[in-house]
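Notes from hallway chat w/ T.B., transcribed later so I don't forget. T.B. wanted the structure written out for a chain they're using in a teaching module, and asked if we could keep both sequence and structure tokens in one place. Agreed to drop them here.
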Amino acid sequence: MKLELREVPTPQPAAHQLLVKIHASSLNRGEFLGGLGAAKPAGQEAAGEIAGSGEKVMGRCPGGFAEYGLMEKTDAIPVPASLSWEQAGAIPLAFMVVHDMLVAQGGLKPGEWLLVTGISSGVGVAALQAAKALGAKVIGTSGSKDKLERLSRMGLDAGIQTRRADFHAQVLEATGGRGVDLVVNNVGGSVFAECIRSLAYQGRLATVGYLDRVMQAEIDLDALHAKRLRLFGVSNKHRSAEQRAATVRGFMADFLPHFAAGRIRPLIDRVYPFARLAEAQAYMESDAHLGKVAIRM
């Protein structure tokens, strides 16, 4: 996806929308994975002030790489006073996806084990931070030893340096031979079978990303059957407005207090000014970052 700066009129909100003066946004890899097609406004989240009231909000905001954007009223989340604009702009998508995976569908409990493949991504780091706040133990895979060492200082219990599907033996070793209760698969089909092998009895597997572009995988039906596993996908593609609103309410109930109290702070790797948006995209696609790449308007 190639970014192109354009001048457009200030959008006009409908009755169910808010006009937001945007102060910050962040990049999400998924928005750059689409194929060729008509030009569309870039950016999917933002933090800013509601025009006319000055109230600080963050949330989903299609076309968020702009001076002004429209936010559904049901998507608007109050910004805790302890957060900067850049931190607020890096929270909504990653942490609402994480809430869906860990809480709403994953049912992660204190003391349980979570495995995150590709843990240095924005969603991966958010999953680590949220899981630790929930009292879980976390194993992560990454090709970078340096990133794993940095994440260990943020609470990562066990880091496995690999970019291949060769980690289940180390997962079993870390968990005393039991396996993990929940897997967040950011990588895709190339590690799917290895994720299945890493699961404990009654384990759950969340498929959220496919950075490897591998969209097919074999399923060990014997393991699925014998271990009573549960496999689920995480996407907003076909969800209704009410279903998306339910995730916002869940995030506000379960995660927002952790942000307000300072127990979770989004990890910002770099902040780029809006004028250097294309440079920010290139940096994210280089895989050099750890956590989120933020945009300051």
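Follow-up for T.B.: The chain has a mean pLDDT of 94. Might be a good example for the class.
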